[in-house]
Amino acid sequence: MKTLFDTNVILDVFLDREPFSSDAAILLSKVERSEIIGFICATTVTTIHYLTTKALGPQAASKHIQSLLSLFVIAPVNRVILENAAASKFPDFEDAVLYEAACHAGAKYIVTRNIDDFKNSKLPVFEPKEFINVLESLKNNS
Q1: Which residues neighbour 3 within 8 Å (Cβ) at sequence distance 6 or greater?
Q2: Can you tell me the distance from the alpha carbon of 62 to that of 49, in angstroms, rounded to the nearest whole number?
Q3: Which of 31, 37, 98, 134 has the most crowded Cβ, counting Cβ within 10 A?
Q4: Would you give the DSSP letter of residue 110?
Q5: What is the DSSP letter of 116?
Q6: Where are the domains of the chain?
Q7: How confident is the model at residue 50, as a pLDDT?
Q8: Residue whose C-alpha is closest to residue 47's, from 120, 99, 98
Q9: Tens of pLDDT along 61-119?
């Protein structure tokens, strides 16, 4: 189940942003156990490094980046991704880049806390709690 995680979901775990961190942590543990093939956008890595360095310091940020690189497949961002994002009808360029990267990497789902930002998505988009419920439902129907 190839799933791209939005930056906000990863930050919820790394910065322990309540009340969101619990559901996000459940999903990251599913990536760790290979129940989900987790993707993150290449731009997510740089954004997380920047924000975690400011919030937690450079050593913690470095550890978080190493964790991300060991757990997730990195969805590349190149000229085609950026051009498609710029031409898209997404109101937010960053979300458009994430979406285009997900599509080009072969992700089938996107998990984000900003569902409204992905109204133009052709991929199914879920909030973390909702995606946990979808996964449980699929597991129970197997």
Answers
A1: 36, 37, 38, 39, 107, 108, 109, 110, 111, 131
A2: 7
A3: 98
A4: E
A5: G
A6: 2-134
A7: 96
A8: 98
A9: 999 999 999 999 999 999 999 999 999 999 999 999 999 999 999 999 999 999 999 99
Q: pLDDT value at position 142?
A: 64
Quick count: other Cβ atoms within 10 Å of Cβ 93? 12
What's the confidence (pLDDT) of residue 10?
97
Distance CA 25, CA 106 (A): 23
Specify the residue for token string 């799933």.
Answer: 3
Contact call for residues 9 and 111 (beta carbons, < 8 A): yes
pLDDT tens-digit readout, 15-29: 999 999 999 999 999
With 0-12 / 13-18 / 19 or more C-beta atoms within 10 angstroms meaning exposed / middle / buried, residue 71 is middle
pLDDT per residue as tens digits for the range 41-56: 999 999 999 999 999 9
- Tell me if 35 sits within 8 A of 135, measured CB to CB: yes
Count of helices and strands (H, E) across the chain: 7, 5
CATH class label, 2-134: alpha beta
